[in-house]
Amino acid sequence: YLWPGVDTLWVGAAAFARASGFTVDGEAQNMALPAGARAPAPDGVAIRHVLDDGDAEAVRVLVRSQWPHWLAELDRGIEHGCCVGAFDGDGAPGAAALGFCCHSVNRFGWLGPVGTDPAAQGRGIGGALVGAVCRDLQVAGLRSVEVCWIGPEAFYASLGGVRSRTFTLLTRPVGER
Length: 177
Known about the structure:
Layout: E1 6-7, H1 11-19, E2 23-34, E3 45-49, H2 53-66, H3 71-79, E4 83-88, E5 97-103, E6 110-116, H4 125-139, E7 144-147, H5 153-158, E8 162-171
Helix pairs in contact: 2-3
């Protein structure tokens, strides 16, 4: 996607979409997260940019098993050097991926996709991954990171995130005018 929907502040765009046959299909919300957000890596977890083929494949294995619909976005994040992974143990080559976090995949400064293996959740891995991505974006000059399609909201709020934008989701069957 290029945008999660039509920003509710863009009244003219929403009116144009409705006049063009689109119907409202819900809403999506984004959060703003301070680029200075940080969280330490938990013991026994290595956090690093996904740069080599072994790390890339380990993260792909995790995403294929849990969130296969994110594979194309993950691959763009890896290709552009915008993906950070969490790896089991000391993170030696061949270590299993426990999570990943990408940024700037669809829009510069936007965080996502991001995920932690359900079996490893609650250990602080997600916070460490988001913190590593925030560091990248802070170095790039951003003060705030946009978390698109928030969820889970409480997780991002615990890192200092606040609701920032609301989008109206609009749909129209393909081929209709």
